[in-house]
Amino acid sequence: MGTVSCVNTRRYHSLLIATQHPPAERISVLARVEETVSFSGKQFELAAAQYPGTIQPHGFELLDSFRLDPFPTWRYDLNGMILQKTACLLERRQSVLVCYEALQPCSISVRLMLSCRDYHSLAHQNSALSSATRLGEGRCSFTPYQAFPPLTILHSAGAFHPEAKWYLNNEYLRELERGLDFREDLYSPGSLVFELAADNRVWMLASIEDDDYDRRLDDAEIETILSTEAKRRTFGKPLWRALDQFRIFRENDQPSLVAGYPWFTDWSRDTLISLPALSRAGFALSETKAVLEMLLEQRSQGLLPNRFTDQHGTVEYNTVDATLWLFLAAHDYIQQSSDGAFLRDTLYPAALEIVDWHFRGTVYDIKSDPTDNLLHAGVPGVQLTWMDAKIGDTVVTPRIGKPVEINALWYNALRITAECATKLGESDQAARFANHAQAVYDSFNQRFWNEESGCLYDVLGSTHNDASIRPNQLFSISLPFPLLDRGRAKSVVTVVHDKLLTPMGLRTLAPEDPAYRPRFDGGMASRDSAYHQGTVWPWLIGPFVTAYLYAFGRNADSLGYCDGILKTVEQQLDACCLGSISEVYDAEAPQQPGGCPAQLWSVAQLILGELRSLTPNS
Predict the structure, then answer these.
(1) How many CB atoms lie within 10 A of CB 204?
(2) How much is the pLDDT for 151?
(3) E strand intervals along 452-586
(4) Where does residue 386 fall: left (phi above 0), alpha (psi -120 to 50 degrees), or beta otherwise?
(5) Cα–Cα distance list, 201 to 6, 62, 89, 481 (Å)
(6) CA within 20 to 30 Å of 532's CA: 71, 457, 514, 570, which one?
(7) Given this model, what pLDDT does residue 618 score?
(8) What is the mean pLDDT of residues 175-187?
């Protein structure tokens, strides 16, 4: 992750972020490189870095063009001589390949700038670093710290020139904006020197997998790597390729989805909300099934994990909705695959167990209330819904009680379980769950409807009902089994449209609410306090489109309207993080992006929204 100008503006910008325990415990290894090109007696510097009060050098001034597909590619004009640089990560390798090509002969000195640190931290000059360099034919290797794996560079350079030095006070201005430490010292062990012939290619491959590259690579092998990686990155639509970037394999070789880059690992909620987009983007249904199986293996007391943390092997279960989203993702998979064996042997037994735990009650006071059959969740100090910001011990949007989207998910889970029982010939069980679902339907319509505002309460509490206008009510009409008739659905969609819809997605709170925050900015506490108090989330555009088409019908006008708002959001692929869509945006114009620059469900729900708006009877 980096910038077109090659100025690292985040601590997470690096040519190689790697891990020995995917996808956790990531380390920043090779922060950047500084290239000096010698040509016709002149020297040109391609790099750029921010230091206190200055940027040095100014390589971006030589930049003629940049493109993303199939790889990030910089094209420099050096007084008429064109030089091209490409960088690509290798599939399922902790490695990055950087190549240079030129139209005329030249010499390129590439200085290596190492960080070798946890990717959340910053490095500083110190005496503990080892400057030892191990050289071999077509390779050099460095182990600055024993706690981190060696960095091996395989290359086609003519020589490595050792010149150990520290580059002090590299500044990352996006970290300054976020109220965090923003200065770092980078260690450079020296430079690779390439002699580049006209219309030829030189390269360097940086990796922490030394055992996988125990011999010298030749140009033909590099060509094969580039060709293979290019094919992977040129399939389908830009949104499909954006989704591909979140597909990962965990250390045990199980597939999963990263919730967002650069700082999230895999979160069950985000994965399950996004999972139906995988097959729509051309990926095998077997991958969807494997993700479902992986998550089901992790269930405990009727709950799926909330997230897999940065600490290797640690799992957290503080979620009420992730488990219920599994029913939706599995229902979609069964509809697409007709996988009766998975339904019989895996899904249905798990569904019975999960629903039983919710009837009996499980951790965090998650339980079906026998008085109205609605699902209650929440204890003080624990965030359980997707609105999960927490500052210290304070949950910003606690939502303890009976949240509206949780009960929409609960209703759908019961209906899906009844449907599964029917398919398996379990008529008594099918009737049982259908009756429970009907009881939820009746209570939901009686208790959640707020006549005064013409929409739904956000949370039913023990002493009062939360009438905040939030997008969560859309899930009552955007899931496979809606809870509202079309009259009430039109009223809900109209309220959400008028108060929450923006060109970038939906606000999380209506502007007239006293708790509304128009900007997602400042330090961490400031941003967390605004996270779900007005801040816009693009992923909600998918549920909005589905709800809109349910409420107003699938006609030329409604389909055209939905197509227009989806295309507006899709334009963000060329805005903040090129080739992806950000996590959040300001609630008010000009709606600057914030949070993770690349967010899984922002991309996945846009894919699903477009599918629903373009398919006549979806």
Answers:
(1) 24
(2) 96
(3) 455-456, 459-460, 465-466, 501-502, 505-507, 536-537, 584-585
(4) alpha
(5) 21, 20, 18, 57
(6) 570
(7) 46
(8) 96
d(CA 135, CA 146): 18
Residues 6+ apart with CB under 8 A from 120: 11, 263, 310
In 3D, which of 603, 546, 548 has the Cα closest to residue 572? 603
Residue of higher predicted confidence among 2 and 611: 2
Query: What are the φ/ψ torsions at residue 287 (nearest 5 degrees)?
Result: -70, -40
- Contact indicator for 89, 2 with CB cutoff of 8 Å: no
Q: Which residues pair with 112 in a beta bridge?
A: 33
C-alpha–C-alpha distance, residues 576 and 586, integer Å: 13
Three-state DSSP at 76 gives strand
533's CB contacts (< 8 A; 6+ apart) are 396, 397, 508, 509, 513, 515, 516, 517
- Quote the CA–CA distance of 492 and 23 in Å, as a whole number: 40
146-164 pLDDT, tens per residue? Answer: 999 999 999 999 999 999 9
- What separation in angstroms does the CA of 350 have from each of 175, 370, 377, 507, 529? 43, 22, 21, 35, 37
pLDDT for 41 equals 92
Please provide residue 504's backbone torsions phi and psi, each rounded to the nearest 5 degrees. Answer: -100, -5
The answer to whether 363 and 300 are in contact (CB under 8 A) is: no
Residue with tokens 């870095």: 49
- Go through the chain and tell me how many residues it has: 618
How many CB atoms lie under 10 A from the CB of residue 428?
7
Please say if the pLDDT value at position 465 is more than 60: yes
Residue type, 464: H
- DSSP secondary structure, 170-202, as one string: EE-HHHHHTTS--EEEEEEEEEEEEEE-TTEEE
The set of residues, in sequence order, having a beta carbon less than 8 Å from that of 556 and lying 6+ positions away, is none
Given a contact cutoff of 8 angstroms between Cβ atoms, the answer to whether 173 and 228 are in contact is no
Question: What does the alpha-carbon distance between residue 42 and residue 352 come to, in Å, rounded to a whole number?
Answer: 73
Q: How many CA atoms lie within 13 A of 556 on its CB side?
A: 0
> What distance in Å separates the CA atoms of residue 131 and residue 273, rounded to the nearest whole number?
47
User: Residue holding tokens 């620059």?
Assistant: 597
β-bridge partners, 173: none
Rounded to whole angstroms, the Cα distance separating 520 from 404 reads 25
Count of CB atoms within 10 A of residue 591's CB?
Answer: 18
Q: Check if the beta carbon of residue 258 is closer than 8 Å to that of residue 595.
A: no
pLDDT band for position 281 (50/70/90)? very high
Please report, as a single letter, which amino acid is at residue 407: N
Residue at 97: amino acid letter = L
CA 41 to chain centre: 46
* Residue 492: half-sphere exposure toward Cβ, Cα within 13 Å: 36
State the Cα–Cα distance between residues 522 and 541, nearest whole angstrom: 26
Q: Rounded mean pLDDT of the chain?
A: 95
Distance CA 173, CA 450 (A): 46
- Average the pLDDT over 272-291 and give the result: 97
Rounded Cα–Cα distance for residues 375 and 522 (Å)? 36
Question: Comparing C-alpha atoms, which of 456, 436, 474, 257 is closest to residue 351?
Answer: 436
The angle, 0 to 180 degrees and rounded to 10, between the axes of the packed helices 348-360 and 404-423 is: 140
> What are 415's two structure tokens?
């209906």
CA atoms of 185 and 163, how far apart (whole Å): 16
Sequence-separated (6 or more) residues with CB below 8 Å from residue 80: none
DSSP 224: H
